[in-house]
Amino acid sequence: MKSFTILILLLIIAPMCNAQQKVYTSIFKQKQAVVNNAAFRFYGGLSHQHQDYFNQAFSLQGVEGGIILKDKLFVGVFGSAFVSNHEIAIENNPMYILMNQAGLAGGFACNSARLLHAGFLLNIGCFSLAGNDKAMPVFKAGTRAISLSGLVISPQAFAEINVTGWMKFRTGLAYNFYSYGDHSQVRENDLEKVSINFGFLFGKFN
Fold it and tell me: Which of 65, 86, 144, 201 has its CA 20 to 30 A from that of 114?
């Protein structure tokens, strides 16, 4: 099922990957501009990852940044976290959860000069999850009844819209794989779900 999900993500992208066009088109640009194919460009962005954690909808807020190579490939880093406690129940016991993750991001975009285009993103990094029967301060150390850490891998198929020459809107579907040692309190299927992602990227895209 997980392999099938990744295959579907890739099939979403394939029909939209055609020859690179020669003009840059955006929503708020009155005229099309000739693409300036720089060797690399810096970019940064804000992201939102929405999915079910412990069968309840919640979200990670994050940032991403790096370089775009030849307007196609991009490599960088990412980081995301819960910005408030996620209230759940484990074995009918109330529990508060915090999670964060960070690592490397890489992928490609097809026809990035087109107003609407597609791409593929792969995030690979580390995550940590903390749980307690009382609400915990965000981004601060404290008492933890549950403390997990491990590997997170998130392949994502996305679509982007060029809003201006310096801003893009991205939205996509991802599947999030988590690998860690202790499954006695937190099962893989409590975390591993399809997510809906969206955010804004900023940079000199043309």
Answer: 65
User: What's this model's pTM, rounded to 2 decimal places?
Assistant: 0.85
Say if residue 104's pLDDT is above 80: yes
The CA-atom distances, in angstroms, between 108 and each of 13, 67, 68, 113, 143 are: 10, 11, 9, 13, 41
Q: What percent of the chain has pLDDT over 90?
A: 59
Contact yes or no for 201/43 (Cβ under 8 A): yes
- Asked if 112 and 71 touch (Cβ cutoff 8 Å), the reply is yes
pLDDT interval class at 20 (50, 70, 90): low
Kindly give, in sequence order, each residue whose CB lies less than 8 Å from that of residue 29, ignoring residues fewer than 6 positions away. 162, 164, 165
Conformational region of residue 13, where left means phi above 0, alpha means psi within -120 to 50, and beta covers everything else: alpha
Task: Answer for the pair 160, 121: CB distance below 8 angstroms, yes or no.
Answer: no
Rounded CA separation 24/52 (Å): 37
- State the CB neighbour count (10 A cutoff) for residue 188: 11
